[in-house]
Write the structure tokens for this entry.
Amino acid sequence: MTALLLAALGLGLAGMDPAGALVGAATLAAGARRRTVLVYGLVVLGGSAAMGATLSLTVGLRLRSLDLLGLLPRGGLGALVEVLLGASLLGWAGWRRRPAVAGPARAGRSGLVPVLGLGLAYASLSLADPTFAAMVVLAGRGQAVVEVVLAHVMWSLTSQLPLVVLLVAVVAGVHDGAVTWFRRGWARVSPVLHRVVTAVLLVAGGLLLADAVLFLATGRFAVG
């Protein structure tokens, strides 16, 4: 068990993600209650651990030999998917470039269902984390259920350490500094971040459409 927990600690440190804490701080800065942020954080941490443990206990080592590229649609269907995705991304980029319209300020409120949805959605992003996949494989080698669960709890707590620190600060009632820091920092970086995200959407959408056009012209994709 010790070796598996040490591996989980190392993988968690390698995949440490500050975004979860930033989302929590943004929620607080928007006026959400402390209980709301605590629920969000616990869902993120528990959701990631539960999802990882379930995958380790059910599919485990089979993930190592899974050909993810082989699951992608091929031929004309693949080109159609690329066109739809590319057009959607370009449309999203265009929507983001629209002039901002100022509206009346509203007090920040979040019900339980939206918070649960946000937490589960963020926890599901672990599926795209290579260290999460490695943890699923390592913990799927026939270990006892308790060992598997503890290992994924360790990975979740370590990879989301900034979020854990924020939750501890919220419980202790000393989170005001984090909220103030986030508000000041966000005011400086949000315009740049907005432009960067829009540019990424434009590039990604353009590449998908270009790949689809290439297939229509040559019968082959640029990749695969």
In short: The chain has one domain: 2-99+109-218. The longest helix spans residues 176-218. Residues 162 and 184 are 18 Å apart (CA to CA). Confidence is low (pLDDT under 50) at residues 102-108.
